[in-house]
Amino acid sequence: MFTSINPATGERAPEIPELTDDEVELALSRAATAYRAWRNSSLEQRTGLLSAIADRWEADKQHLAETAVREMGKTITGAIAEVEKCIAGFRHYAEHGPAYLEPTTVKTAGGHAVARWLSTGPVLAVMPWNFPYWQVVRFLAPTIMAGNVALLKHASSVQGCGALMQQLASAAGAPDGLFQNLAIKSDKVSDIIADRRVVAVTLTGSEGAGAKVAQAAGRALKKVVLELGGSDPLIVMPSADLDLAAKTAVTARVQNAGQSCICAKRMIVHADVYDAFLERFEAGMKAVKIGDPMDAGIVMGPLSSIQQRDTVLDQVERAVAAGATLRFGAEKIEREGAWMTPGVLADLDPESPVAKEEIFGPVAVVYKVADIDAAIALANDVPYGLGSSVWTRDEAEIERFARDIEAGMTAVNALLASTPEAPFGGVKLSGHGRELGPWGMHEFMNLKAVMFGEGMAGD
Q1: Which of 22, 155, 305, 430 is the most buried (most CB within 10 A)?
Q2: pTM of the predicted model, to two decimals?
Q3: What is the pLDDT of residues 146-155, one digit of tens each?
Q4: If you ran DSSP here, which 8-state letter would residue 434 be given?
Q5: Of these residues, 71, 82, 161, 261, which one is catalytic?
């Protein structure tokens, strides 16, 4: 059974039963049957379904948002924004998907070849709780457009969100088996990956979970895309707009209670502007309004669980023990639920074990550096390489950062955020493969070369 606990109140939701082995088998059979038909669906059918799903989400926006708030604690404002982003994601693939599937013709020595994008089959997605809708939609929308079918193993704490997504897809007209939420625990994942009917797997989650899924996929010789953790740097140089940089850094650390893979966690600041930035940043962190996540005026609610909150507090304790200065905050709030205050750490030895970890909560680590070389070296001095954010008006510095920061993404004078148009993913222990745009859709497609002799048709 799955039990969701409201992290703001400690209230338990009604239990959701776990699928039996027979029910899992039935789901896999449904997926295989659905694929045989959906692979031959027209582009008009696919774009029509995506638009219909978007319409359903639009009509049910408040219900979707409130379900996420109750299950994992994000603010209602953040939850509504997430649902709206999902709607935009469905509409993006409805509008641009056909162009992403256009074949390409190239000349060959004996004639020409046509490179065509073809579907491959049922794809399993193993998804986390922190963005319970968007993490799924950035896999689901391109999967539908590609002519594949989708199986979702969602996090245990957000099974209500997973079930609701399946209901809305069905209500929009999705064929039976096209998208199924599998209410299963992690111990069932390896067997599903090994099943001959499943062609690939994508995971967003921890490094440990990614290693296990990659191992299972490797044994079965199946394609895998991994989006894992990140300890993203936000670099501030002397020419930066300090007010905007500090405001953005605050947002990065407290949106979703700091539980976002691609939001900056390490603030790396040039010595010339360190004090001025820190003053602004600390003032912004101290002003964050904490409270009932159902209140539209609240900036930060609880963390997703007491366990997650305590993990962050333990990391802060270990950082202080390693020599860091806790400038303020990062304290447990004594009330029912998974509450804590935002905090700022400084003077942490970048070579200490805790400095190499991802702090998945509303705590920032601030570093002072002498120049751009030191900034880049420190930015790269962690095992992760997901995103990064740089703040400078100097074009030469922008080029250095874009070239030399070891990350899948770099935002320039902006908060890093995923968007349906651009590729999303990381390097090093942050995973491999890409989501979103045509790149994400093509990850699980067969790029087939159709070869024609001289004088043959096929253009």
Answers
A1: 430
A2: 0.96
A3: 999 999 999 9
A4: -
A5: 261
